Amino acid sequence: MSHIELQEYLGVSDEQFDKLLPENESEREVPYIRIGHEYYYPVKAVDKWLTEIEAETIE
């Protein structure tokens, strides 16, 4: 998925999405693949990440 597709998939606003993806790559929690200057987000990896985040929130 691209940035725009990920934002739509998560159902978040532009402002929320910017907070989710800090400029510093080492602080990014969302799983991604970087090809050149572009970032792509594998659907299965994003789904797994969301499941893990939900579990942490419940605990």
Account of the 3D structure:
The chain is mostly helical and 59 residues long. It has helices at residues 3-10, 14-20, 43-58, and strands at 33-35, 38-40. It has a two-stranded antiparallel ribbon. Strand 1 and strand 2 (38-40) form a beta hairpin. The chain is globular and about 35 Å long. The model has no long low-confidence stretch (mean pLDDT 85).
Topology overview:
Blueprint: H1 3-10, H2 14-20, E1 33-35, E2 38-40, H3 43-58
Antiparallel strand pairs: 1-2
Rg (C-alpha, Å): 12 Å
Shape: globular
Give the count of helical stretches.
3
Mean pLDDT: 85
**Largest sheet: spatial strand order:** 1-2
**Which H/E pattern describes the elements?**
HHEEH
Number of strands: 2
| Low-pLDDT sequence parts | none
> Tell me about the biggest sheet?
2 strands, antiparallel
Alpha carbon gap, first and last residue:
29 Å
Describe the oligomeric state of these chains in a short phrase.
single chain
The proportion of residues in beta strands is: 5-15%
Q: Structural class of the helices, strands and pairings?
A: mainly alpha
Percent of residues in helices comes to: 40-55%
